[in-house]
Amino acid sequence: MKTLKLVKSELIKLFSKKSTYIFIIGMIIFTVLSCIAVKLSGTTSYDEYTDFAYIEDECRYLLENIKDRTDETAVLIKKILEKELKVFEEKEPMLSGELNTTWRREVFDIYSTCEMNLFGTQLLKDGYTSEKIENALYEIQSFMYSDQIYFSTIDTPEYVSDQEKTRDSNYKILKDNDFVTYAKNKKEEFENISKDYSKELDTLIKDKDSKTGNELVEINKKIDELKNNIEANNGAIEVYDYFINNPILSKKDNWKYNVLFEAINYYDVLARSKSNKLTEKEYYESYEYQNGKLDYKTYLEKVDFDNKNTEEKIAVNWYSVKNNMPQVGIFSDDTDARSIVNGTLSVNIFGIICVVIAGALVSHEFSTGTIRFLITRPVKRYKILLAKLIALLLFMLCLMAIYFVTDILTAGIVGGFANFAIPDLAVQNGKVAESSFILNTIDILLINTIPVLLFVVFAFTISTVFPITAVAVGLGMGGWFACYIAGEMYVSMAMAGSRIASKFAWLKYTPVPYVNIANYLNSEYAFNLSKTIRFKLGAWCTSYDNIYGNYATYSIYCIY
Description:
The chain is mostly helical. Helices cover 73% and strands 2% of the residues. The protein has a two-stranded antiparallel sheet. It is elongated, with a radius of gyration of 31 Å.
């Protein structure tokens, strides 16, 4: 009972100080400004399909420089640059405004490739050799479409007819804005490839019984590769079939199209990963082993983990599309409310305030002389310190709540509250399930508070030893930043497969890798935390997957 009274007394003291309110107001202002800054800055990506004026200007600049030259190379360069400019002139109206969609850009690339291929065959007919064409392209360093010219060394009626047919059909698709025909053509393309794979697979299966030894191993490997490719093609066929039945996805910046188009890439990644799995002998002779020194069993676990992760992404993408749930931060506006929260909800400012207050909590009593009154009270000293620590932790929770509410409200005001209603998606027990974004965000914040709690206790302990506030705060903050920098370096080296990191594997048992835990958590993994309340060391690194690819899963084994 006395301890509770002491805790109440300490809380009253904390909230009666002007410095406390200065800290809170400063934190609120910082959080509000961070959200506004993220909203205003917004990630704008460079669009090579619309911002090509610089290439056009360069073409005209080079044409101006060689206008007085009459040698054969200069004449050829002029022809190439003029053709390049003509393609650009066609491109601008075809891919402007609402017409600048992913699928139309793909169709235009096919059309322009055929056009440049035919131009290359015409140059051959005009008497230019492949060597002369190559030299001309080297002199102008080529442009976006000029590279196709060099590869057009085939001058046969069949080749020309095929190129003209492909060019004209794709031009018609562009002119009519015919998304359905585009999707049907792509579906047919993948179906024809699958048929070829199936024929080859049937032949190999028939020949399999007559093979032994290494030949049998190779034929089995080829059979698995063909099966994986057929499976990937079937996934792509399913996507394009969905496009055919849902032509609205042709609209500009339609996130559903981007999600399904990404699924096609995932099917391909999964097929290549399964096909490229190394045998034990191949693995120990590979660069991956020489670089990482993982044993073969761990390597297989890593591959299986990668494949499972890819399969889950495919499942989430399909669920996202069919249930009209954009995946925030992946295929949606990066300035909406949820993306702003994901980009600003860090415990750095919140943690710094807590560590400063913790470092000053007891040492301030020494500097002001009030410690004498405390130790003369009929209460044991450990209870006094325990009451201060409990009050500090309660204050920290209060501060965290203010921080969270401020971030959510500001992000909602500048980015729209409606986005908070869209659930997070993740695979749970083999099925895609939904989870509340707000609850997941609370989970992330609570987990991010773990290193804060550690350094708050550390700073509090220091403040009981050193009576000088500046020393206690300085050591607490110094420990925080030292571990932060060391942790960043350690994790970065491990992610890059550095052997130096493996020599310091013992650091995983220290606070070093965990200070900046916010960097290793995202909403996708937080979903699993909120549903199963499990916390696996190193599992945060999977959130790096979008940036580092397989290095993410590699780091789990390398570090943890």
